[in-house]
Amino acid sequence: MSGIHLHWYLPTNGDSREIVGSGDDSHLARGPSRSTFREATLDYLTLIAKTAETLGFEAVLTPTGTWCEDAWITTAALSQATTRLKFLVAFRPGFISPTLVAHQAATFQRISGGRLLLNVVTGGDPLEQKRFGDYLGHDQRYERTGEFLEVVRGVAQPGKSVRRFDFAGRHYRIEGAQIDFGKWPLPPIFFGGASPAAQDVAARHVDTYLVWGESPSAEAARIAHVQELAARHGRKLTFGIRLHVISRDTENEAWREAERLLEKLTPERVAQAQTILARTESFGQQRMNALHAGGDAGLPTSPRVRDLEISPHLWAGYGLVRGGAGTAIVGSHEQVAALIEEYHSVGFDHFILSGQPHVEEAYHFAEGAFAILKSKGLLAT
pTM, whole model, 2 decimals? Predict the structure, then answer.
């Protein structure tokens, strides 16, 4: 197992001191007052990126969807305002040619000095997929993603190689393709998906398999399963986890902040968000939804903050109104660091973290839990 890689998040759909909705129709689920909402301007995103770089985060993740700014264009701009920070660029493989993505990646590597990471998002909301003209079913989308990644790896050539790549599959037909990456490698490929079809793609094609945060014991079982699938193809993966974080000097302070965030969520806002999230075809989103469902009794009308603690210091409050990652690590700096260390012990190397607002919360985490992990020599060099 390698050291811990700590990454931050770039909120290209805006930021707030409240839980910002993320995902399709986020304007319904978001709801912070306009006085506290921070638009995703280039100046503000630059501030977050420079903050992450200053504090020592390795990379920032950018989301993808019609509800946020385009990740490729935004990060290309931010690469010119930073010098060391890497960019984990999320994109939908079904909406763009794999040869073109390889071309974009090669260009990004050159203009940024090799600071690109790729986050492949197959997509789970059928309504949003149709907005892009994508009518494939769930398993067909993952089949297409597998072909897409095979082509991307096939056309990516180091230096001035003369090898041309041909491919004939169900979804792509490529003839004579070659993209010169020069001195830079094809960026590492990150990918998430909880379904059997997604895990098969991960086992065959990706470098780092990503999950949304569940309990360490549940995640350990998932890692073991996916690693076994990869071994059948002679491959070994690394693993990453996406979590929010509320790290404070004391445990009470952290839970008071979680309680403040929860108090801002009206029952109407939660109901709107849950209606949107319920239509998902994503197995991972379904798992997130189940964490705060309240069992057979349903979701409490006015849950108390600790009602949503699904595992020690793991809080499912974000998932009430937010798609994607729905859990947060909540606790003192020592407790937050300890839970990250526990996740690392079961197999996670990459931690993609976030918190509202993203500038202030980055400092809370960096000066606390981050510093503790660094002092223990646990961080990757």
Answer: 0.91
